[in-house]
Write a structure and sequence with these properties.
heterodimer, A: alpha+beta, FAD/NAD(P)-binding domain, Methane Monooxygenase Hydroxylase, Chain G, domain 1, five-stranded parallel β-sheet, five-stranded antiparallel β-sheet, B: 246 residues, alpha+beta, 2 domains, 8 helices, 7 strands
Chain lengths: 639, 246
């Protein structure tokens, strides 16, 4: 085992750590800032906010995204809201309470100092976004409104209808647009990062493919920031956008960056079920629906009657039965696993048998259809649009789907990876959510990283190392360009019989079966045997038509799928090694008598950071021990 | 369900392009329009013919990437929906479906159904923002905004930047897109200091990009997936007039 990783967390009391570190950080002289160039990859909440803030400080910034516009990054799809410890509701919220809820919600697998800093920064994010013109929901008196969200007993979530992610992203995008107009940011949409370039161990640039011309081009810089999101599309079907991929962070991993806790993946319980083989993605509906909906399946397996024909006595309200005190509001992971179990018992509903009812009949009896429309009108409309069923009359059918990934590249307190000069922010890093993320916390973390943490910490790196930007004719760039070009030629040269999509679907199905909502040793070992076989077949039998020097979407997908086919192995490896259950990682061998996740703090109270050793070879484990000095380690219970 | 598809194929910006016909069979009524195109692409690939290029990403109606003219209607016949939210059950078995890219001078075709909409980004860059540096924001509740104003601003801010308004307009006008951003920011107190300069700069940019003018046909409102009202265009015109006189 390699030596323990040092997160470079500041010493001293928790409340003072960030202040202390901000004072210790070296500053770059304002006149010198413009001499430094920074590359930012990805334009979601983290990337756009970081790029705009860095440009405001005076750095030269180059930004890349694969979409046709930076405004389309997948942060746009976040519905629910953003948490902040403003205590506007006077209900006893505080920085400390947000910190506590997040550490506990993460099932004690996050870094205390990071989470505390996140809670400290949260209020400033709301101020910043409001000043940008984000149209947050308001009370009649003109003050900001809040709503409640899972995992918290206070009301601290700020929102803009059901489009909070969209509005926050447009705020950051507009800040970015302002810097583009001022000439401080050079924006390159339709450009996909294919490799990270390191020179003397420092991250000094990237190789990208222009998605319109197919040209492979190198860009060098003094530092590289990856804000490229999560990897839930390793399951093929997920709530992520079709383009979401692991390529940028996986390429960095292959260049020596450690990948931490890949097995911490989050499944969201309230998604619209799969309807057929052709299904391309899964649509999430806000889990606020569980406030009024009752979850049930028929008591007898194989019952194909319509829900109206099934009398009360023949229904199993399984969440209420198993968790009498939390009932339908059991946390995401527990609600998801319970649905999976009843479907495996043959009680699932809908054509596929992979669904459970979410029934509003009782709530409608209590508050009327109008009352329900006021609360969930847009969600009911969305459901009706997709399924052609009227949820006011027929219970909704829901099923869990892969949604978010807590794992990502390992970063220290400065959000810098183990490769100097490589910073990783937002969902792409492993950071602050531990083994399970609470609702409305992803937006908070992405913006905290981008607006208020990275702009300071990156300065310390630049001031300490000085200007070292190499030219792009450096041999390391040439090597990376040749590799990237060679891989594209190789993909086009296979000329096999199967489409990229068929391989990606097969990988996704395998991962969902063996490494999805619950996992066990036999299943993970099976996956670790089958993934390399599938990968080998991919490289012998994939069919990618067209050329490299043109807009070629099948080729783009092929490159991403090829990386998922390698990355999936690391994910399973991590899941196999972590012989405990925590948060989104549920090992069937490790559960309490009541079927709850059973942590093993004795042996697994650490972040697992993996180092690449070659394709198909087991990675080397580096541990960052996690110390809980302020929140007492305890077993979650929702009965 | 079975359909006959007539689809625009164009290899590159330089290529002339042509309509091509493809049959699609055994389509499930529960498929989205884009999933039906996925199936077509799988078939084309199996036959050795290059798949169709079309923009898509979130597939839940919020990213604004999808951009198909279906039977002459931007995003197809379903109201208040993007093409990814349009399901095949809205068509009749045996129908012929025509699929074209957004057509506008300011949106050059890159390939097949993919067009370059970066002109919309440049309109925002011209002034569609509030100039506030990170860190200099005042306490959020220090500025009270009525619920009504905030909701009105949200109605305008809901724009997803898909460009359907431009595609459906006989003048290829981007007035609804531009008006939505101008209105969103002009309605809010935070947007006041730059109010006059913003509308002038954004409209100037809109004209430079080659978008046409508004002749009150309201086609844009009819196809807007977020149902953004043309009353925002009237608001922008007022803003513009006021800005000219200041």
């Amino acid at each position: 085992m390699a030596e323990a990783l040092d997160a470079k967390t500041p010493s001293g009391p928790l409340e003072a750590k960030w202040d202390k570190r901000r004072f210790e950080l070296k500053l770059v002289n304002p006149a010198n800032k413009r001499k430094f160039e920074i590359i930012v990859v990805g334009t979601g909440l983290a990337g756009a906010s970081a790029a705009a803030s860095l440009a405001e400080l005076g750095y030269g910034v180059r930004v890349f995204c694969f979409q046709d516009s930076p405004r389309r990054a997948h942060s746009i799809a976040a519905q629910g809201g953003i948490n902040a410890a403003k205590n506007y509701q006077n209900d006893g919220d505080s920085v400390w309470r947000l910190f506590y809820d997040t550490v506990k919600g993460g099932d004690f697998r996050s870094r205390e100092a990071n989470v505390y800093r996140l809670a400290q920064i949260s209020s400033g994010i709301i101020d910043q976004c409001a000043a940008q013109g984000v149209p947050f929901a308001r009370e009649y008196g003109g003050h900001l409104a809040n709503r409640s969200f899972g995992g918290a007993q206070v009301s601290r979530t700020f929102y803009a209808q059901g489009q909070t992610g969209q509005q926050l992203l447009l705020g950051a995008y507009q800040a970015l647009c302002r810097q583009i107009a001022l000439g401080r940011v050079e924006m390159r949409p339709r450009a996909e990062m294919l490799d990270l370039v390191t020179v003397n161990g420092h991250a000094k640039g990237i190789v990208v493919r222009d998605l319109v011309t197919g040209k492979i081009v190198s860009y060098s810089a003094d530092a590289v920031v990856l804000a490229t999101g999560g990897y839930a599309n390793v399951f093929y079907l997920s709530t992520n956008a079709k383009g979401c991929n692991v390529t940028a962070i996986y390429r960095a991993y292959k260049k020596g960056a450690f990948f931490a806790n890949p097995c911490f993946t989050q499944i969201h319980p309230t998604c619209i079920p799969v309807t057929g083989e052709y299904q391309s993605k899964l649509t999430l509906m806000s889990e606020s629906l569980r406030n009024d909906g009752r979850v049930w399946v028929p008591r007898v397996k194989g019952d194909k009657r319509s829900p109206h024909e099934i009398p009360e006595a023949e229904r199993d309200y399984f969440l209420e039965r198993k968790y009498p005190s939390f009932g339908n509001l059991a946390p995401r992971d527990i609600a998801s696993r319970s649905a999976k179990e009843v479907c495996e018992e043959g009680k699932g509903v809908g054509k596929s048998g992979r669904g459970v009812y979410l029934d509003f009949a009782e709530a409608i009896r209590q508050v009327g259809a109008e009352g329900i429309r006021e609360r969930y009108g847009n969600l009911f409309d969305m459901y009706a649009k997709i399924t052609a069923e009227n949820p006011y009359q027929t219970p909704m059918r829901i099923y869990p789907a892969a949604h978010y990934t807590m794992g990502g590249l390992w970063v220290d307190y400065h959000l810098m990876s183990n490769l100097p000069g490589l910073f990783v922010i937002g969902e792409a890093n492993f950071s602050d959510h531990g083994a399970n993320r609470l609702g409305a916390s992803a937006l908070m973390q992405g913006l905290a990283d981008g607006y208020f943490i990275l702009p300071y910490t990156i300065g310390d790196y630049l001031a300490s190392t000085g200007k070292r930007k190499p030219e792009t004719d450096h041999p390391e760039f040439k090597k990376a360009e040749e590799e990237a070009g060679g891989r594209i030629r190789k993909l086009l040269a296979v000329k096999g019989k199967r489409t990229v999509d068929s391989f990606h679907r097969q990988l996704g199905a395998l991962m969902w079966e063996t490494c999805g909502m619950s996992r066990n040793e036999a299943g993970l070992k099976k996956a670790l045997q089958e993934i390399p076989v599938l990968r080998e077949e991919f490289w012998k039998n994939v069919k990618v038509l067209g050329e490299g020097a043109q807009l070629n979407q099948a080729l783009e997908h092929a490159g991403r799928a090829a990386d998922f086919l390698e990355f999936a192995e690391i994910l399973c490896h991590d899941a196999l090694h972590r012989r405990e259950s925590c948060g989104g990682h549920f090992r069937q061998e490790h559960q309490t008598a009541e079927g709850e996740a059973l942590r093993d703090d004795e042996n697994f109270c650490y972040a697992a950071a993996w180092e690449f050793q070659g394709i198909g070879r087991p990675p080397v484990l580096h541990q960052e021990p996690l110390a809980f000095e302020h929140v007492k380690l305890s077993q979650r219970s929702y009965r | 369900m079975n359909f006959r598809l007539k689809i625009w194929r164009q290899r590159s910006a330089e290529d002339r392009g042509r309509m091509a016909e493809y049959p699609v069979k055994d389509v499930s009524p529960d498929m989205s329009f884009l999933e039906m195109l996925d199936v077509l692409n799988e078939d084309l690939t199996q036959k050795g013919e290059e798949p169709l290029a079309f923009e898509h990403d979130c597939r839940e109606g919020i990213c604004g990437a999808c951009s198909l003219m279906i039977n002459g209607i931007a995003h197809g016949p379903e109201r208040a929906a993007t093409a990814c939210q349009l399901h095949m059950r809205h068509f009749k078995d045996g129908d012929t479906l025509t699929v074209e890219p957004w057509r506008a001078k300011a949106f050059p075709v890159l390939r097949d159904l993919v067009v370059d909409r970066s002109a919309l980004d440049r309109i925002v860059q011209a002034g569609g923002f509030i100039s506030v540096n990170t860190g200099s924001a005042p306490e959020a509740n220090g500025l009270l905004i009525s619920k009504e104003t905030s909701e009105k601003a949200m109605e305008a801010a809901a724009c997803i930047g898909c460009g359907a308004c431009v595609a459906s307009c006989k003048n290829a006008s981007a007035m609804l897109f531009t008006a939505a951003k101008v209105s969103h920011l002009a309605l809010l107190p935070q947007g006041q200091p730059e109010r006059a300069a913003r509308v002038k700069k954004m409209i100037a940019r809109m004209d430079e990009e080659g978008f046409g003018n508004c002749t009150n046909q309201y086609e844009c409102e009819a196809v807007c997936p977020k149902e953004i009202s043309v009353s925002f265009i009237a608001r922008m015109n007022r803003e513009y007039l006021k800005a000219q006189s200041t």
